[in-house]
Amino acid sequence: MRAFKRLLDRSLTAQAVLIFPLLLGFTALFRRHENPVWWVVQAALCTAISIGFLAAQRRRAGACHRHRRARSRRAQPQAPAQ
Q1: Burial (CB count <10 Å: 0-12, 13-18, 19+), residue 19
Q2: In 3D, which of 10, 15, 5 has the Cα closest to residue 49?
Q3: Per-residue pLDDT, 74
């Protein structure tokens, strides 16, 4: 289970592979009267939107993490030069 969680944490592709069938199932469950092709189209569209949001969050979090590391390096006291 840890390996699966680690894979989902590190890979957007793994998240997309998990999200797509879930969304496809929900779409099929709630829109039974529609054509199955539309189920796939809607699930793919929602998956693309959610992966886009996840990628933006990761980029923002990565930038904050890099900024925090750089700021912590500057805050460390320097040894006086002799």
Answers
A1: middle
A2: 15
A3: 63
The CA distances from residue 63 to 12, 70, 75, in Å, are: 18, 11, 18
- Angle of helix 12-30 relative to helix 36-75, nearest 10 degrees, comes to 140
Q: Are 66 and 74 in contact (CB under 8 A)?
A: no
Q: Mean pLDDT for each 10-residue chunk of the chain (82 residues)? A: 87 92 94 93 95 90 68 63 63
Residues with Cβ < 8 Å from 46, sequence gap 6 or more?
Answer: 19, 23
Name every residue whose Cβ is closer than 8 Å to that of residue 51 and which is 6 or more positions away in sequence: 12, 15, 16, 19
Helix axis angle for 12-30 and 2-10, nearest 10°, is 100
Is the pTM value of this prediction over 0.85?
no
Q: What is the pLDDT of residue 8?
A: 85
